[in-house]
């Protein structure tokens, strides 16, 4: 197998391995509440702890990769994350122990999003790179779906421990395949570590209005997105009476995000980043409101919500590279830090709201974030209209 092909296959598998592990407990939150006696907030912390630790570690690991190599960090991340995935169901039923292991898992998982795209950019030919990036992102999306569907599919047969062990086994298979296919790194050149300079460059990006607004979107948008998926299964179980194994299928809505993010580039080429972002944000907000309706409307709302979010996220993440005149890697790192920090902080806070109020109150809380995202989009549209936004070609 040619080196470029091996690299693309390897990146598909690392995306599957990493993201199937990151969200492996999300679809099981109602089970943690009903079987283990966790509160909804405690259950949600099994997700927020992982994404929060990932947010804290993504920048330091990105900087360390400049000295010790991307490939080495990717392999270590995949192997350690797989080991910790097996540890989650084996530490007992203590909520603090499970949350602690999930935090460790998130910390080591950070190695993949921190350096995977940099590895591809350094090692692959320019004509191959877009396909390779697409396969990596597809692996992320499909890994997220697998990490949610596999545990819920096993619940009726194995209980919660067996479900998480089964999910860990699948992640382990993906990780082994990644290690087998990953080519040896050839173009990496070690650099001296300059933590202060890297951090200073990231902070300085906040002085750019466009970048600051995009960073805020990453925090607010991902926070609301994860909050909705944390608790939508509770709505399906308690209000509509669906069984846990069936509610896991709601995560197939992620395919709407795969579809929208793959097509948003064509729309950006025609209308520009700002208009595309605003329309995506409106769809994202509309989908949330639709979850107040009957089951068919709720499901349609989740489809629109997911498609809108991933379209906005794809638009924003690409826009960051364009808006950053210098230190683009640091700008991308700040975007990812805000993205996963929002997932952790807002995801945890939404658990308290979910416990304290009705579904309508919860949706009102989440809608505050989506309204803020629309206002950010309007601000971006206004700021870019002053100087005609260059349309991508």
Automatic annotation (TrEMBL):
Swiss-Prot/TrEMBL keywords: Cell membrane, Membrane, Transmembrane, Transmembrane helix, Transport
Compartment(s) where it occurs, according to its Swiss-Prot or TrEMBL record: Cell membrane
Listed GO MF terms: transmembrane transporter activity
Record's bilayer topology term: Multi-pass membrane protein
A Pfam family it matches: MFS_1
Main location: membrane
Major facilitator superfamily (MFS) profile domain boundaries: 7-385
A GO cellular component annotation in the UniProt record: plasma membrane
PROSITE patterns: MFS
Transmembrane region(s): 43-61, 73-91, 97-120, 132-150, 162-182, 211-231, 237-256, 277-295, 301-321, 333-353, 359-381
Record bears the keyword Transport: yes
InterPro entries: MFS, MFS_dom, MFS_trans_sf
Keyword RNA-binding: no
Family: Belongs to the major facilitator superfamily.
Protein name (Swiss-Prot/TrEMBL): Major facilitator superfamily (MFS) profile domain-containing protein
Provenance organism: Corynebacterium stationis
Lineage, highest ranks first: Bacteria, Bacillati, Actinomycetota, Actinomycetes, Mycobacteriales
């Amino acid at each position: 197998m040619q080196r470029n092909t091996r690299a693309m296959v390897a990146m598909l598998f690392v995306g599957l391995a990493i993201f199937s592990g990151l969200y492996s407990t999300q679809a099981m939150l109602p089970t943690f509440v009903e079987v283990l006696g966790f509160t909804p907030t405690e259950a949600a912390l099994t997700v927020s702890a992982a994404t929060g630790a990932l947010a804290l570690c993504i920048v330091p690991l990105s900087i360390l990769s400049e000295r010790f190599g991307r490939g080495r960090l990717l392999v270590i991340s995949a192997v350690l994350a797989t080991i910790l995935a097996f540890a989650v169901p084996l530490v007992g039923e203590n909520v603090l122990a499970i949350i602690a292991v999930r935090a460790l898992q998130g910390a080591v998982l950070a190695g993949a999003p921190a350096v995977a795209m940099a590895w591809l950019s350094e090692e692959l030919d320019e004509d191959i790179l877009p396909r390779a990036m697409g396969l990596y992102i597809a692996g992320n999306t499909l890994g997220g779906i697998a990490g949610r569907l596999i545990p819920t599919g096993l619940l009726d047969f194995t209980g919660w421990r067996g479900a998480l062990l089964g999910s860990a086994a699948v992640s382990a298979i993906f990780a082994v395949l990644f290690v087998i296919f990953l080519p040896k790194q050839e173009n990496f050149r070690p650099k001296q570590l300059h933590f202060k300079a890297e951090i200073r460059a990231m902070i300085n990006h906040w002085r750019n209005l466009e970048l600051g607004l995009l960073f805020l979107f990453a925090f607010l948008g991902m926070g609301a997105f994860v909050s909705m998926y944390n608790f939508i299964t509770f709505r399906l179980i308690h209000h509509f009476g669906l069984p846990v194994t069936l509610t896991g299928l709601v995560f197939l809505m992620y395919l709407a995000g795969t579809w929208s993010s793959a097509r948003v580039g064509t729309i950006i080429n025609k209308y520009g980043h700002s208009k595309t972002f605003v329309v995506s944000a409106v769809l994202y907000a509309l989908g949330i409101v639709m979850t107040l309706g009957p089951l068919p409307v709720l499901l349609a709302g989740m489809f629109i919500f997911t498609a809108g979010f991933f379209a906005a996220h794809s638009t924003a993440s690409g826009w960051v590279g364009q808006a950053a005149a210098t230190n683009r890697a640091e700008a991308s790192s700040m975007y990812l830090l805000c993205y996963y920090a929002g997932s952790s902080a807002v995801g945890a806070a939404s658990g308290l709201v979910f416990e304290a109020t009705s579904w309508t109150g919860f949706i009102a809380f989440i809608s505050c974030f989506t309204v803020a995202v629309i206002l950010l989009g309007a601000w971006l549209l206004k700021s870019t209209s002053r100087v005609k936004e260059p349309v991508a070609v």
